[in-house]
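Intended use. Records such as the CHAT domain-containing protein entry shown here are meant for training and evaluating sequence-to-structure methods. They are not intended to support clinical decisions.
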Amino acid sequence: MPRANVSMSRAFNKTELLSFTKQPVHILHIIAHGQGPKIQTGNGKTNTTADDFTRMGAKGDKLPETVVSTACTFFNDAWKVALKACGVRILIASPDEVTPANLTAFDMSFYAALLSSTRRGMSTLDRVDESFKLANDYYRSLWPSGTKFAKFKLVRLQ
C-alpha cells in the first residue's frame, strides 16, 4: 500500500479544477493565487470560489480527505465550510500571504515527511497529522528570528 496517493494536476479554468477533485487520491494540493474565499484558476482569467465547492458538496461530490493549499489566505472560514461540505477531514493552509520561498520550503518539508516514513499501522489521516507536525517544526526553523514568513496550520474539519 502506498504511503499516500498524491496527484498533481494543472487546472487552466474552473471546470478543470473542479473535475480534478474527483481523482482517487488521498490528498488534493491546491497551489494558486488566493484572496479570501477565491482562488485564481490557471492563467488568472477565472476564479474559483469557496461557494463553488460548497455547491459541489451539496450535490454529493466528495474531495480527498486531506486538502493542502499554499494559496495565500486560504486558511479561512469560507474555505473550511466549503471543504467540510465536500467531505474533507483535514485542511493544511495558511491565513497569511504565501511567497514562492514559503510554499517551496513548506511543500518540500511536508512531502518529505509524509512520503519518506512508512509509519506502518497508521491511517493516512494520522500520517498526515504527524507529518505536518514534523514538517512544520522544520519549516519554522528555516527562518531567522524576526523574519516574516507564512505560518501554516492544520485543522481537522470532521
